[in-house]
Amino acid sequence: MATKKKVAKKPVAKKAAKAVVKKADKKEPFKNYVTRLKVGDAAPAFSGVDQDGKKISSTHYKGKKLIIFFYPEDDTQSCTQEACNLRDNYSLLKDMGFELIGVSEDGVEKHKKFETKYDLPYRLIADEDHAVINAFDVWGKKQFMGKIYDGLVRTSFIINEKNIITGIITRVLTKKHTQQILDVLQQSGK
For 60-80, what is the mean pLDDT? Predict the structure, then answer.
């Protein structure tokens, strides 16, 4: 008898769990985590190591305009599309006075391979300890291919020469990311 009860309980529990997930999806669609930082906030101080093993920090960019983009992983389809879109428009952003920095939790070696493979002209911070990721508050619940998990949420910050956040892009279109940046700049009048 004890065996029958165990067998009966397991299928019931699985059905109940699935039903709850489906119910939640229909009533309230899942929304990825969004940073608590806002336009007008001072950009957090940061420091790390780039793809060449060189130290990089916010103090190196004092008085400069900066775009920091956070992406989940080197050499994946969407991250590559975003990195290459920014690469292809790098001279335009530089002409506008912007420095560009990419950040993910990948290590120095993986960043170096990514930079070399796609000829990326900007620095990539290897943030394995999540110091920069946590400072910019871009780690949280997200959904990918129907699964919900904790991870780096793709987000970009536009920072002016006074270290003030003038734009935040939370719904990054990887193939059109530069255009999104330009649109935010135009809307903010910068």
Answer: 96
Question: In the numeric block, which tokens belong to residue 50?
Answer: 């780039």
pLDDT score for 145: 78
Q: How far apart are CA 86 and CA 154, in angstroms?
A: 14
Q: Which has the closest alpha carbon to 35: 138, 143, 141?
A: 138
Q: Which residues pair with 68 in a beta bridge?
A: 101, 157
Name the helix (H) or strand (E) containing 140.
strand 139-144
pTM of the model: 0.83
3-state SS string for 66-81? EEEEECCCCCCHHHHH
Looking at residue 7, what is its pLDDT? Answer: 42
Other Cβ atoms closer than 10 A to 55: 9
Q: What is the DSSP string of 74-118?
A: TTSHHHHHHHHHHHHTHHHHHHTTEEEEEEES--HHHHHHHHHHH
The residues assigned a catalytic role are 79
* Cβ atoms of residues 139 and 130 within 8 Å: yes
Two structure tokens written together for 5: 């009860």
> For 68-85, what is the mean pLDDT?
96
For position 190, what pLDDT does the model report? 58
